[in-house]
Amino acid sequence: LVNIQPNTPLVTDLFQHRLFLHHPGEWETVVIPLNDFVMTNWGVIQDGNELNKSEVKTVGIGLLDKQYGPFSLKVDWIKVMTGAEVEKVAKKLRIERLALENSIAKNQDHKDMQTNMPTGHGGSALNTHKYEEPKATVF
Fold first, then answer.
1. Residue 41: beta bridge partners?
2. 6: buried, middle or exposed (CB in 10 Å: 19+, 13-18, 0-12)?
3. Full-prediction pTM beyond 0.90?
4. What is the tens place of the pLDDT at every residue in 11-66?
5. What does UniProt give as the signal peptide span (predicted)?
């Protein structure tokens, strides 16, 4: 969960966005348009409020998996980008994703031929190697 706290009279006001990672344990670039954040107060969605970009007080990241024990989160950078920058990063991510998908498909086809497993599922009904692009997301 990513939180943005605005500088408002109510300290419980937060703009929130759920963050899903697709490759745990690996670096990921995530883009989240500011318009995708939802205003909440004590976790309850508040309608009709927009984030005033000049009033951002804090940015926070929370782990909500309800798993007890140690964890690690490494953040290389957080940046607010303009529309042009977002488009540039999104294009780069699409190219990287396609290269990754092609590499996985080639490796899987080779494995499928060696094991005589049907292609298309990589030997698994879950197809855990398929990369899904984040829903309009970049950090």
1. 13, 44
2. buried
3. no
4. 899 999 998 877 778 888 888 888 889 999 888 998 878 888 888 899 999 888 88
5. none
